[in-house]
Amino acid sequence: MRKINLYITITFYTFFLFLLIDFILGEKFLKRIGFIYQEDLYRIKNYHYDYSLKENLNTKFANWGNNYYTLCTDSRGFKFDCIENEKKHYQIAFIGDSFTEGIGLPYENTFVGQFKIKTGLNAVNLGVASYSPSIFLKKIKYLINNNIISFDHLVVSIDLTDLEDDWSRQYDENINKTKKNHFSEKFNLKIFLARHFPITYLISKKVNWFIKLNVLKNLNVEHLDFSLNKASWSYIENYPKLNEKLELNINNMNQIYSFLKKNNIKFSILVYPHQASILFDKKDSLYKKIWKDYCKNKCYRFIDAFTIFFVELESSTKEKIMSKYFIKGDPHFNIYGNSVISKILMKEIF
Fold first, then answer.
1. Which of 121, 203, 283, 325 could in theory staple to 337 by disulfide, Cβ–Cβ 3.0 to 4.6 A?
2. SS (H, E, C) the chain
3. Which distant-in-sequence residues (6+ apart) come within 8 Å of 308 by Cβ?
4. Contact at 8 Å (CB) between 250 and 294?
5. High-pLDDT (> 90) share of the chain, %
6. How far is residue 27's CA from residue 19's CA, in Å, rounded to a whole number?
7. Cβ-count burial of 100 within 10 angstroms (0-12 exposed, 13-18 middle, 19+ buried)?
């Protein structure tokens, strides 16, 4: 019994000493090696278009989920390859949300990066996680009207989540605010640890992901849930306020189209699936049909990177498709999924 008490005492004091060192030196140590352990250290408020990536970043330790990856941004907060000098004029620009940003992946593994490398075109990535058409419009207007950059062609990656993101931004502000407050309260301990005990936070996060990916079986996650994921509007019957939400989404896209036309900039739309699409949707998806129809007489190109995954599904399984093209335990494309998108882009744009 005395031996057990001694072990407990030693463990307690060791843990206490570790926390003390982490509290005093943890943040300084991580900064010194360029470790960005919190997303809000590189996703910052922007007064012209809500938020953006922080300018002049260069780190090998940007964090997303269970991944650490190289992230570089230029002086305007655009994700790039860490090497090339920034330009003022580009042949082609891409804008979208986290799929376009290529969250969790270095630039060269994203579909924008792969497209740029393979084609040699001057391309710029304006995408940032959780963007939607209302922010696309603000950002491109600000960049063009203030002569920050110019481009000949804009590819808008219209994500399935954009429907709800636009709606929450413009029509459900009070509800959205309540959700954010709930989120903040729910993760209060997480935020406290990240700010004051960063090394402890990183260790606990790694342990949490190890348990999720290797111990728990049949883990229920929102992006794979039939009705909770934001892609569900494309296949669920009687989806709440669908027509109103689509009208808002399309109205924002119309404003983008009109602005680009006025400035003699080509306008194309890119569509692609989520994992929930693979699980529950079909090749002739409502999402694909809406934006294909929208593109008639408006778009330079309608770029369909949705159908190809369903064609492959005819000789494979849903589980194999998701495992092959998406990050494990995450809703986003891995390098192979991004490669599919980049090949479609090259085929459709040239």
1. 325
2. CHHHHHHHHHHHHHHHHHHHHHHHHHHHHHHHCCECCCHHHCEEEECCCEEEECCCCEEEEEEECCEEEEEEECCCCCEECCCCCCCCEECEEEECCHHHHCCCCCHHHCHHHHHHHHHCCCEEECCCCCCCHHHHHHHHHHHHHCCCCEECEEEEECCCCHHHHHHHHHCCHHHHHHHHHHHHHHCHHHHHHHHHCHHHHHHHHHHHHHHHHHHCCCCCCHHHCCCCCCCHHHCCCCCCCHHHHHHHHHHHHHHHHHHHHHCCCEEEEEECCCHHHHHHCCCCCHHHHHHHHHHCCCCCEEEECCHHHHHHHCCCCHHHHHHHHECCCCCCECHHHHHHHHHHHHHHHC
3. 340, 344
4. yes
5. 65
6. 12
7. buried
| 9-13, 99-103, 214-218: least confident range | 214-218
List, for residues 116-165, the tens digit of each pLDDT value.
999 999 999 999 999 999 999 999 999 999 999 999 999 999 999 999 99
pLDDT top residue among 182 and 342: 342
The C-alpha atoms of residue 142 and residue 149 are separated, in whole angstroms, by 10
The 10 Å Cβ neighbour count of residue 275 is 23
Distance between CA atoms of residues 103 and 127, nearest Å? 10
| Rounded alpha-carbon distances, angstroms, from residue 346 to 100, 112, 115, 226, 294 | 16, 11, 7, 33, 22
pTM for the structure as a whole: 0.85
For 312, phi and psi rounded to 5 degrees?
-65, -30
Name the token pair of 271: 């569509």
Tell me which residue has tokens 């843990």.
15
**Left if phi > 0, otherwise alpha if psi is -120 to 50, otherwise beta: which for 34?**
left
Q: What is the pLDDT of residue 34?
A: 62
Q: In the structure encoding, which two tokens stand for residue 221, read together?
A: 């996650």
